[in-house]
Design a protein that fits this description.
The chain is mostly helical and 389 residues long. It contains 15 helices and three strands. It comes from Streptomyces hoynatensis.
Amino acid sequence: MTSLGDTDLVDWNLAVSTAARIARPGPEVSRDEARAVVAELRRHAIASEHHVRAFTGLRAANADTPVLVVDRPGWVRANVAGFRQVLQPLMTRMRQRRAATPGGTALAVMGSKVTGVEVGMLLSFLSSRVLGQYETFAPATPGLPAGSGGQAQGAGRLLLVAPNIVHVERELDVQPHDFRLWVCLHEETHRTQFTAVPWLRDHLESEIQAFLGEADVDPGTLVERLRQAVQSMTGRGQPQEEAAQAAEAEEAAAQRGGGMGIVDLVQTPRQREILDRLTAVMSLLEGHADYVMDGVGPEVVGSVAEIREKFTRRRQTGAGRLDRALRRLLGMDAKLRQYRDGERFVRAAVESAGMDGFNRVWTSPNTLPTKEEISHPERWVARMRPGAA
């Protein structure tokens, strides 16, 4: 039984149940169709492994990470497990600080319930949009080695969200076989990045922990800021007209380069430095996946040009006003920029240095591009030349 002192900032179980309760239903498919989709995604994931490694020249030290085809609630449960692991040091600090505050532990129980609902709402939103994901920080399964079906320490897993893939392929009116393989190529690239570059996971985790370690925000203040941000984006607790006005203001701020996302709520100058490095590496990873997906695509995906054109148009224009505002709150607009900027960096670096020259990026944290180099790939290429200072 969990004591008051062990209460997290977020009631994760309530977050999962809330997300499952309000998640949008997936597309209608028969039981046989569902089985066929799952089987095909598994086949494509296996085929993608060969295609990606042949194209990139990357070889995995540990290829035992599992592939899971999940529904929307399954994606939520998997990500909550990862969140709990990554955020545990911050949660521990918050509990210690709360315990030193008179009445803090008692108030925490109710606060965690409210926050659990809010987080559940966000997870519900995301669960209908994610097509696939390499879950870098999947928690370990005690006593189970890699390859046993559980998770060894430091192992990740590839998630493919079947109902979302079917929904998008129908919405875009593209060839299902081609689209499913195209998605798997992107996600398999992420799996290859982390399995072929053993230091990458630990580097990312250390950067994230350094970012969180700089947070010196009172737990109640953090929760209230999150709640206000969510309500301003979703219109919860506001009349419809006020909600629309808030969304318009946020959209205008985004166009000016301003506005607040969740990460902006807790930044210090030191966090901004760390976030710049994280932005650069995430741009590299996402851009590399897009580059590989399109590089392999013409050989194995017959309708890749049509898929890319329609999917890019959907990324740019496929959201309503409130939807766009919520995406900004969650940092999803930044992720779209990472796809674009990162792909340009990878393309320019490969054109200049060749694939072997580009693959020097995976040598160590010191060879990763900076945020500035993502925008100016020629500077990274010059830095990587033999004898460069």
